[in-house]
Each structure stands twice: as C-alpha cells, then as structure tokens.
Amino acid sequence: MQTIDAYIATLAPMQQEVAQIMRELLHTAAPQATETIAYNMPAFKQNGQVLVYFAPAKKHLGFYPTPAPITAFAAQLTDYPTSKGAIQLPYDQPLPVKLIKQIVAYRIQQVTG
C-alpha cells in the first residue's frame, strides 16, 4: 500500500467506515501531520516522526500511539485492552474521541518539544 485511500479501499465496509472516521479524527487532532503508510498501516507523521498508527482488526480498531502515551494515560485506558504500544478500540463501542485527541496532543508534544 502506498496511500491511506488505497489501504482503506481493501477493507470490509464496516472497517472502511471506522478507519475513515479515525482518519478524519486524526486530521482534526493533528492538522499539521501528514499521512503515510508505515509497517503496512495508516500512520500520521509530524517533524519526521510517526505520531500514531491505526489498523482495523477483526473485532477492534488497533490504535498504536507508541508506548509512552499508553503509560501516561493508563488511568483513562482501563476500559480498553492495551499492550506495550497498542490500544484495542472495540467496534461495539464509540471511539473515545476526547481521549484519542489527548493522546495525539501528547505525541505532538513529544515530537515537537
């Protein structure tokens, strides 16, 4: 894949919808970031560094903000399965828009600070 459009086109309809919502949310949260594909996933990059990645899975949207935000926002992430660098956002729950924006702002501060 070379573009997020091409990536999204390969997804099932429900995954396309969620991926497009996440894409638009990330544009709002990081208006100076650019889209890219990294590790075969959609990603947003700023100051030469990837801020976040995302990728639909069978039952959740994988959100990959790197390890530091997962530690920093641990108290707010208790409702979501997490690992060192990933957050699983189940399709049967609304996206946590405010939390995603806070995590992206944290990452922007990391790469521009």
Account of the 3D structure:
With 113 residues, the protein is of the alpha+beta class. It has 4 helices and 5 strands, in the order ααββββαβα. A 5-stranded antiparallel beta sheet has the order 1-2-3-4-5. Strand 1 (34-38) and strand 2 (41-46) form a beta hairpin. Helix 2 packs across helix 4. The chain starts with a helix and ends with a helix. The model has no long low-confidence stretch (mean pLDDT 96).
Outline:
The protein has 4 helices and 5 strands; from the N terminus they run ααββββαβα. The chain is an alpha+beta fold.
The gyration radius over C-alpha positions equals 13 Å
Query: What spatial form do the alpha-carbon principal axes imply?
Result: globular
First-to-last CA distance: 31 Å
CATH architecture identity: Alpha-Beta Complex
- When the domains are counted, the total is 1
- Identify the strand order in the major beta sheet: 1-2-3-4-5
The number of helical runs is 4
Average the pLDDT over all residues and give the rounded result: 96
Helix-strand string = HHEEEEHEH
Organism: Loigolactobacillus binensis
Pfam family, one: DUF1801
Protein name: Iron chaperone
What does the secondary structure layout of this molecule look like, with pairings?
Layout: H1 4-9, H2 13-29, E1 34-38, E2 41-46, E3 49-56, E4 60-64, H3 67-72, E5 87-90, H4 97-112
Antiparallel strand pairs: 1-2, 2-3, 3-4, 4-5
Helix pairs in contact: 2-4
Name the features:
5-stranded antiparallel sheet, Aspartate Aminotransferase, domain 1, alpha+beta, YdhG-like, Iron chaperone, 4 helices, 113 residues, 25% strand
